[in-house]
Amino acid sequence: MHGDLRQIEAANAGGRPPVVFIHGLRLLPTSWQRWAGVFAEAGYAPVVPGWPDDPDTVEEANTHPAVFAGKRVGQVADHFCDLIGRLDRRPAVIGHSFGGLIAQLSAGRGLSAATVAIDPAPFRGVLPLPVSALRVAGAVLGNPANYHRAVPLTFAQFRYGFANAVPEEEARELYRTYAVPAPGEPLFQAAAANLNPWTEAKVDTGNPGRGPLLIVSGEKDHTVPWAIANASYKQQKDNAGVTEIVEIEDRGHSLTIDSGWREVCDTALAFVRRFH
After folding, report:
1. Alpha helices in the chain (DSSP H)
2. 109, 82 Cβ separation under 8 angstroms
3. Dihedral pair phi/psi, residue 250, rounded to 5°
């Protein structure tokens, strides 16, 4: 948290428009390092906070996985919204996977100048359940005890859920470099969102202060396939703000960190530049 506050203080002091990056499950803030560099070169002040209690390194995360356990969608959303509220200017917010859900939650609270949700986790009202997404989630949801646990992925699970669209050698390198355990609870919350009227995985899509929103979908994503991303878009498109969706060809869920990351980064940057 202290490091996050230092980033916010630096962004406020520098006077450049801020951009907040929110990672999803299985990754750490360091997964945005190259993106932050691109946005800094483009004149923005990147802010790359962690989820509550995020370790500093992948090695530390894999050595002490229990630190991830017990995180809820609402807790994480409040954490990021509190940080965003400390900025002197409304930022652009860019999130991946569950970070894409959190980004939409912050936009629904009127905190974002522009939002990019990349392969975003589903929220209440998003109904499709593609087979590949069920297979990915089954690694956690198959055991109810995982609700309160931090759950790592095997390489085979990471390969299918994240890195199916890259060569195996690259997939193994991504697994070594980026993959960390993740709390089970957010996956259970997302899975039950349409059965629970009080779910924390609920986005205010109608807020006229939501601002512009771009949803990015990887064509070959097994974790958040087009059907889910497009259903999120359909929930959002009646908002008074600009709402767009784009599909990136031949890309899986690792699209923010793999060898094709720059295309996705440039897509997000172009959208942010239009509005922020």
Report:
1. 2-14, 33-41, 58-63, 73-85, 98-108, 131-141, 155-161, 168-178, 185-191, 226-236, 261-275
2. no
3. 60, 30
Q: What is the Rg, in whole angstroms, of the alpha carbon atoms belonging to the chain?
A: 17
Pairing of strands 213-218, 243-248: parallel
Give the model confidence (pLDDT) of 52-74 as tens digits.
999 999 999 999 999 999 999 99
DSSP 68: G
Collect all residues with Cβ–Cβ distance below 8 Å to 38 and sequence separation of at least 6: 262, 265, 266, 269
**Of 119, 118, 104, residue with least CA distance to 268:** 118
Residue 131's pLDDT is 85
DSSP for residue 127: -
Q: Which of 273, 267, 231 is nearest to 249 (CA)?
A: 267
Amino acid symbol at 265:
C
Query: Which residues are CB-contacts of 12 (< 8 A; sequence separation ≥ 6)?
Result: 86, 87, 88
Measured from the Cβ of residue 14, the count of other Cβ atoms closer than 10 Å reads 12
Pairing label, strands 150-151, 182-183: antiparallel
Q: Is residue 246 a contact partner of residue 276, using CB atoms and an 8 Å limit?
A: no
Collapsing DSSP states into helix, strand and coil, what is residue 93? Answer: strand
Report the C-alpha gap between 112 and 212 in whole angstroms: 9
Q: What are phi and psi of 256, to 5 degrees?
A: -85, -15
pLDDT one-digit tens code per residue, 207-239: 999 999 999 999 999 999 999 999 999 999 999
Both tokens of 217, joined, read: 């979908």
Query: Model pTM greater than 0.90?
Result: yes
